[in-house]
């Protein structure tokens, strides 16, 4: 394929666009091709004619415009950062736009109905701004940018989910936009969008020179008189503008910006200009074909299938496949968390104990009732309702902290945790699939099994991909990202159906201790204690593997077998927690780090401290969830994700600024 | 007549019973509606605020507290309120053991593709009345509804000179997508009670609604389309030439009906029928004739 010269490659792609555009028109206008012809020939303005003119043609234009804009923006971002994993979606723009839209709809509904796009734009810019702040000047070109984007995606996603869940009746109108629908009723959006995309023309002319200099490396570029940072910043903002206005116009459509530059490169685009141009072209082609698929599905099923869902279904597997080809090199840079104390002394232990006791007292005794706040020992009835939730929350927190710690030690990756690696997303996706196949009635029985199978499957993929690439942080994060994106798209798709099941699903996904029975609470606790004890037995192995495989092997350990056994342990633990609670983000990542920051640097104290911290954090999150907006309750998963995620982002930004 | 008088007497007496009125917690909006129609003010209602905003009728007195969300009602609050009976939808069946520690529980079927929703709600209402000892009142309320529906039928027949239009009830979800109320949805049951046919044939769906692109509505050649308010972006949609070109818009066979809950209990049929009837009476009498349709 690389043998084809650039002009003929572009020409061929353009030629492929033509029949595809005709197919798209035919599907969108709901007409047979020959009818299309006769209608264009006749002078009469029937409804079908108007449908062609005001719905099908604008939709076609929209697919081409946004596809090209997303492709161009993705290529620009990837070339600036020299990072094949960067795209509008991976650096937080989509989740920022979604949160902005949700907030605007709830706070200023009348404004949101007509000018919601500005809220989306603002949200996208804010999210990416935060990600840039986290990644910092040096991190922009590498993994820190992607990881920061992932953190913001998880955090903003949890915030938006919480808001939607609490205000379910008021946010229903958003879901079609959230699922990414290209349908048009007039030329309004096309006319809104195209002048804003004109920026692409000067970009195509001016950007290639600095970009090709960048390919030589930052120092070389500076050596040739390129004012590196201002140029990069301007290009970055331009790319962001292109994708933000597109998202605003058509809603959340992921993957296009990520896939097209990679495809362009694979199909032989070598120079900067070639890649930019060809990405734009491919983006248009890709979005047009996914939208044609969505239209086809719509016609076959008789109900609306959003384009974003189709894009994600195609995009996620392709992304994984791409990952295998492009991620040979290990990127040693991660995100730096503050180091904290050197030793875990008695004083710190005392503080932790006091804090834990306080949290337990508050969680058990302080509650809101019909007449306001009360602090008392609960009655027998209330106690029987309260303790399973409290115990479930605490055990889940401990379990997540342990699995996060195991992963971080085993993969020698400070950012490994069940949610970042996609274990939680895999479990959740499997449960969602089970819900679709078996219906809601069997969910209670099927969910734990599905969650287990889901997280095991993700783990298996991780092991297969990971061994070849020595468990590089980039690869691990990538899998998490693609699964997370797939999960999000599936969720948006289910929500967009507009039926009452949507909120039941959202409620489960939010991660709640509400439905925990005493038996389940005890089972979870026993499971976590058992797995925790098992992990303690392996503490020597964990220490040695944490130093290096070679060191561990030289001390007589069977490293591959041990690693496999411990990873299965992690999957079991994660499945156990996720099946009961749904996904909880950030906790598994953060608890081991806080333990380190408090000075617990050896495996044994870190494990114990992280587990207790995880338990305490979840206790508090559950309590906040139960009391904050009484009598309504916020699921503990959302509270924990938002609290821990906020703290995590704060730590990262503080670390960057000092 | 005698029954009617008795009913009035009961109505008049109700406030006097308020002190020993049944303490019932309603964890579904259908149950709330049914209790209110039995002149029982629920002790607490799940999502009471949203009920007042979205269901509206029958009116829930201001003092009734919310007991949390319908998916996760606040158990500790329920325990504190000490109800004598808790009425739940099937979606809460799995926490029934917990609720039974607080008070006896009755579960009533909600909206489902599997059964006739109108029939199920009617039976649920009667059954609830039986367990509260208010069968007589229940029968009266149902008869009053039937009488009301008969009046609407007559009014529509008078307006449309016996050539009733076919009608489809929709709710916009965005300027480019709409939810159509199809078979077994409460709006379609209300249409049937008014002697009206659906204007668009749809396959049954789990929630009685099907989401379609807005252009699909263009296929409605005959018949009237009613949309349930509110729709914040209506100015944008209604001004577009494509919307103007929809056959039912061009021929003035389109009207709005006030916000009405479409997943309600048995009396939501009456409110829906009223809303539909009022909207239809506002349209010119020759709208959407469907001459082939016999009455009843």
Automatic annotation (TrEMBL), chain A:
It is found in: Cell membrane. GO terms for biological process: siderophore-iron import into cell. Pfam families: FecCD (PF01032). Keywords: Cell membrane, Membrane, Transmembrane, Transmembrane helix, Transport. The chain crosses the membrane at residues 55-77, 89-112, 118-136, 143-166, 276-297, 303-323, 344-367, 387-408, 420-439, 445-465, 477-496, 516-538, 564-591, 603-621, 628-653. GO terms for cellular component: plasma membrane. It is a multi-pass membrane protein. GO terms for molecular function: transmembrane transporter activity. It comes from the Bacteria. PANTHER family: FE(3+) DICITRATE TRANSPORT SYSTEM PERMEASE PROTEIN FECD-RELATED, FERRIC ENTEROBACTIN TRANSPORT SYSTEM PERMEASE PROTEIN. Belongs to the binding-protein-dependent transport system permease family. FecCD subfamily. This is Fe3+-hydroxamate ABC transporter permease FhuB. The lineage of its organism: Bacteria, Pseudomonadati, Pseudomonadota, Gammaproteobacteria, Pseudomonadales.
TrEMBL record, chain B:
Its main location: other. It is found in: Cell envelope. This is Iron-hydroxamate ABC transporter substrate-binding protein. Pfam families: Peripla_BP_2. Keywords: Coiled coil, Ion transport, Iron, Iron transport, Signal, Transport. GO terms for biological process: iron coordination entity transport. One of its GO terms (cellular component) is outer membrane-bounded periplasmic space. Residues 23-284 form the Fe/B12 periplasmic-binding domain. Belongs to the bacterial solute-binding protein 8 family. Residues 1-18 form the signal peptide. CDD domains: FhuD. Residues 135-162 form a coiled coil. InterPro entries: ABC_transptr_periplasmic_BD (IPR002491), Bact_iron-sidero_bind (IPR051313).
């Amino acid at each position: 394929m690389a043998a084809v010269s650039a002009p003929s490659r572009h020409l061929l792609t353009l030629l492929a666009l033509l029949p595809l555009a005709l197919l798209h028109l035919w599907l969108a206008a709901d007409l047979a091709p020959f009818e299309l012809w006769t209608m264009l020939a006749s002078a009469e303005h029937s409804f079908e004619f108007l449908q062609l003119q005001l719905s099908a043609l604008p939709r076609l234009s929209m697919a081409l415009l946004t596809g090209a804009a997303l492709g161009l923006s993705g290529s620009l971002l990837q070339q600036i950062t020299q990072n094949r994993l960067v795209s509008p979606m991976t650096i937080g723009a989509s989740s920022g736009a979604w949160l902005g839209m949700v907030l605007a709809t709830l706070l200023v509904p009348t404004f949101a109905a007509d000018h919601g796009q500005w809220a989306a734009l603002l949200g996208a810019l804010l999210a990416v701004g935060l990600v840039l702040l986290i990644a910092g000047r040096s991190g922009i070109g590498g993994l820190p940018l992607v990881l920061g984007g992932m953190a913001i995606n998880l955090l903003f996603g949890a915030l938006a989910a919480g808001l939607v869940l609490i205000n379910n009746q008021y946010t229903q109108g958003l879901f079609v936009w959230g699922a990414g629908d290209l349908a048009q009723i007039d030329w309004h959006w096309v006319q809104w969008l195209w002048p804003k995309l004109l920026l692409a023309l000067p970009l195509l002319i001016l950007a290639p020179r600095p970009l090709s200099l960048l390919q030589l490396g930052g120092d070389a570029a500076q050596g040739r008189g390129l004012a590196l940072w201002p140029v990069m910043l301007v290009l970055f903002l331009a790319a962001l503008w292109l994708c933000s206005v597109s998202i605003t116009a058509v809603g959340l459509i992921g993957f296009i910006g990520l896939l097209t530059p990679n495809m362009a490169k694979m199909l032989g685009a070598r120079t900067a200009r070639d890649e930019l141009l060809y990405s734009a072209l491919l983006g248009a082609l890709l979005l047009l074909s996914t939208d044609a698929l969505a239209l086809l599905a719509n016609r076959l099923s008789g109900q609306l299938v959003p384009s974003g869902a189709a894009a994600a279904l195609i995009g996620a597997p392709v992304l994984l496949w791409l990952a295998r080809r492009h991620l040979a090199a290990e990127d040693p840079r991660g995100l730096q968390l503050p180091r904290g104390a050197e030793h875990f002394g008695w004083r710190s232990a005392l503080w932790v104990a006091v804090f834990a006791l306080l949290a337990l007292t508050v969680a058990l005794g302080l509650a809101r009732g019909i007449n306001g706040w009360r602090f008392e020992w609960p009655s027998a009835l209330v106690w029987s309702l309260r303790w399973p939730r409290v115990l479930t929350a605490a055990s889940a927190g401990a379990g997540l902290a342990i699995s996060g710690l195991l992963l971080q030690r085993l993969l020698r990756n400070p950012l490994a945790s069940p949610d970042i690696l996609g274990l939680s997303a895999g479990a959740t996706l499997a449960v969602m699939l089970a819900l679709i196949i078996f219906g809601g009635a069997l969910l209670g029985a099927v969910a734990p099994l599905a969650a287990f199978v889901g997280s095991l499957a993700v783990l298996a993929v991780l092991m297969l991909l990971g061994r070849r690439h020595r468990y590089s942080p980039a690869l691990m994060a990538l899998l998490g990202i693609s699964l997370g994106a797939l999960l999000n798209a599936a969720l948006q798709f289910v929500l967009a159906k507009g039926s009452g099941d949507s909120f039941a699903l959202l409620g489960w996904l939010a991660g709640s201790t509400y439905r925990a029975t005493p038996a389940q609470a005890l089972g979870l606790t026993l499971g976590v204690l058992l797995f925790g004890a098992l992990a303690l037995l392996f503490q020597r192995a964990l220490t040695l593997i944490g130093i290096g495989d070679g060191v561990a092997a030289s001390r007589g350990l069977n490293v591959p077998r041990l690693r496999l056994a411990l990873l299965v342990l992690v999957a079991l633990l994660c499945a156990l927690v996720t099946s009961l609670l749904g996904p909880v983000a950030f906790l598994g990542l953060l608890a081991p780090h806080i333990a380190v920051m408090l000075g617990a640097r050896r495996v044994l104290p870190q494990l114990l401290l992280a587990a207790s911290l995880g338990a305490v954090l979840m206790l508090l999150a559950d309590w906040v969830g139960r009391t904050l907006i009484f009598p309504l309750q916020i699921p503990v998963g959302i509270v924990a994700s938002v609290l821990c995620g906020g703290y995590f982002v704060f730590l990262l930004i503080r670390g960057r600024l000092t | 007549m005698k029954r009617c008088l008795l009913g009035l007497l009961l109505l008049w007496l109700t406030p006097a019973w308020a002190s020993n009125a049944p303490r019932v917690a309603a964890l579904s909006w259908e149950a709330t509606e049914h209790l209110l129609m039995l002149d029982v003010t629920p002790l607490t209602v799940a999502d009471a605020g949203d009920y007042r905003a979205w269901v509206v009728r029958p009116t829930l007195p201001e003092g009734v507290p919310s007991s949390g969300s319908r998916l996760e009602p606040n158990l500790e609050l329920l325990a504190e309120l000490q109800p004598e009976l808790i009425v739940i939808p099937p979606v809460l069946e799995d926490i029934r053991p917990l609720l039974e520690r607080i008070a006896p529980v009755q579960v009533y079927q909600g909206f489902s593709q599997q059964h006739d929703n109108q029939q199920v709600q009617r039976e649920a209402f009667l059954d609830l009345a039986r367990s509260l000892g208010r069968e007589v009142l229940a029968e009266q309320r149902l008869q009053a509804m039937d009488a009301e529906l008969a009046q609407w039928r007559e009014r529509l027949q008078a307006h449309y000179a016996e050539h009733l239009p076919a009608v489809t009830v929709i709710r916009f979800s965005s300027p480019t997508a709409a939810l159509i109320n199809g078979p077994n949805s409460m709006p379609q049951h209300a249409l049937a009670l008014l002697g009206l046919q659906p204007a668009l044939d749809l396959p049954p769906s789990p929630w009685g609604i099907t989401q379609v692109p807005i252009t699909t509505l263009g296929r409605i050649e005959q018949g009237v389309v009613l949309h349930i308010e509110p729709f914040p972006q209506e100015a944008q949609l209604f001004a577009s030439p494509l919307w103007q070109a929809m056959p039912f818009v061009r021929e003035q066979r389109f009207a709005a009906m006030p916000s009405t809950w479409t997943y309600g209990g048995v009396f939501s049929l009456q409110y829906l029928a009223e809303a539909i009837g009022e909207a239809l009476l506002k349209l010119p009498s020759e709208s959407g004739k469907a001459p082939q349709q016999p009455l009843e």
